[in-house]
Design goal:
The protein is an alpha/beta fold. The chain is 45% helix and 19% strand. Helix 2 crosses helix 8.
């Protein structure tokens, strides 16, 4: 029975290889390019530095406004009013001195948690993205990041300086990575976001774009204008933001247990 099962698996594998290989005399039709404007929720926006793209999505199905506000009260401690707060995560083309092209944010607007992604369609739109992100941060007193004290915030300041953009925002920072290490460093193998998602939030990412591949996908998108693969980067960034919001709540709950 075991040998028959192995033979069947080999036959299935051969069939898959046959189906995915080009056949003599036949050409597989090329997949239709996807325009960035065809992605759901995309709108073009403009500020003093140019145009860029906004992608807006409601997030109440993932994390409730009340849970976030209760978590903020716990993290800030007694005697402090809950400030307006925003979650932020950047996608960049490297570790330093290279363009950032996507800023994901989540915040409460009109009583609803909303996610907003700010995307540069090419390198020339980076300056407009920085300004747009700064406007979002300036509306909030409290910014939640994952390793933002060491990476996201310094990166934003560096790119703003490069483009001679004067940042108006100066929110108080809450770094989830540092808080997670204080709480779980002795009980988890590490405190990477994917590890926290698995052990604390109880889920795994399926089909996610690996972080090391993100810069290559963006450069390809700038060159081809085909948004099929950049859509995966947008999803990766959105999951990061939603996981940060859920982790913010989980950390608060762990604090009072």
């Amino acid at each position: 029975m075991l040998e028959e099962d192995i033979r069947q698996r080999i036959a299935n594998l051969r069939l898959m290889l046959l189906e995915n290989s080009p056949q003599p005399g036949f050409a597989r039709p090329a997949a239709r390019p996807l325009a960035i404007d065809d992605i759901e929720g995309v709108t073009e926006a403009e500020n003093r530095f140019g145009t860029y793209v906004l992608i807006e999505k409601p997030a109440e199905d993932y994390v409730r406004t009340g849970a976030l506000e209760d978590a903020a009260r716990i993290h800030l401690g007694e005697g402090r009013t809950v400030p307006s707060f925003v979650f932020m995560d950047l996608e960049t083309t490297g570790f330093s001195s290279t363009p950032l092209f996507l800023a994901g944010t989540a915040f409460v607007h009109d009583g609803v948690v909303r996610c907003t992604q700010i995307l540069a369609r090419d390198y020339s739109e980076e300056r407009a993205v920085i300004w747009a992100l700064d406007e979002v941060l300036a509306r909030h007193e409290f910014c939640v990041t994952f390793n933002g004290k060491s990476f996201d915030m310094p990166y934003l300041r560096e790119r703003a300086k490069y483009h001679k953009v004067e940042l108006a925002s100066a929110p108080e920072q809450f770094d989830l990575l540092h808080a997670a290490r204080r709480r779980w460093k002795h009980s988890l193998p590490n405190c990477k976001l994917v590890t926290l998602e698995r052990h604390i939030l109880g889920r795994r990412r399926i089909g996610d774009v690996p972080g090391w591949e993100v810069p290559c996908i963006y450069h390809e998108f700038v060159h081809t204008k085909d948004a099929r693969r950049i859509r995966g980067v947008l999803r990766h960034n959105l999951v990061d933001i939603l996981s940060m919001a859920e982790l913010f709540v989980s950390l608060a709950e762990a604090t009072i247990c």
